Amino acid sequence: MHMSPPRRAVELTANALGLHLDLRVINLMAGDHLKPEYLKLYVPHTSYAANSVYDVRKTYWYIGIGHIIYKTMDPRHTIPLLDDNGTIIPESHAIMIYLASKYGKDDSLYPKDLAKQSKVNAALFFELGVLFARMSSITYPIFLEGCREIPPVKAEGVRKAYQLLEDTLVDDYVAESSLTIGEFSCISSVSSVMGFIPIDRAKFPRIHG
Q1: Which residue intervals define the domain GST N-terminal in the entry (predicted)?
Q2: What's the domain range around 38?
Q3: Closest by alpha carbon to 188, among 145, 138, 127?
Q4: Which of 34, 72, 113, 138 sits 20 to 30 Å CA-CA off 196?
Q5: Backbone conformation region of residue 51, classed left if phi is above 0, alpha if psi is from -120 to 50, else beta
Q6: How far apart, in Å, do the first and last CA atoms of the chain sit?
């Protein structure tokens, strides 16, 4: 299991859609995403079959050698980054919406009905603004600053996020009555942060499962 929740969320979406991803890995700790090469995309002189799942390539870092054409990628240095045959999509939530909308056999993962879609969007925003944000407040100091202890106030913030998610779940789903990209997004962060702040089964039985 990859340590990056955004990457896992995209991979869960791709797997549900039956898509093949050609992964390119970069080293965050070495600052590969900040290098000039990350801002450019190698476009080979190769044609691809229309609508082929192999057109979908998630590019973390890809730079060509030889006769090349460069296009601007993402000046924000976002990871993950999707390259779908020349269409560049940064940010995991945008990627999931794009993949589900373009390659889904139906709209179950990301409903077209605006009322249903709003619930999925709410789940995506909750994961980004609450779950992932509170997880990052713990993991960044550990991985990047060498901290060895989690401040109690941050641990309590994660538990409050667990409670919000617990209260949101209906029949084990966070958005609709079936699996959507909202679940993929929330699962990706919860499965990471629970390694630092365990989920109390008695307090959060729905999340714990």
Answers
A1: 1-107
A2: 5-103
A3: 127
A4: 34
A5: left
A6: 19
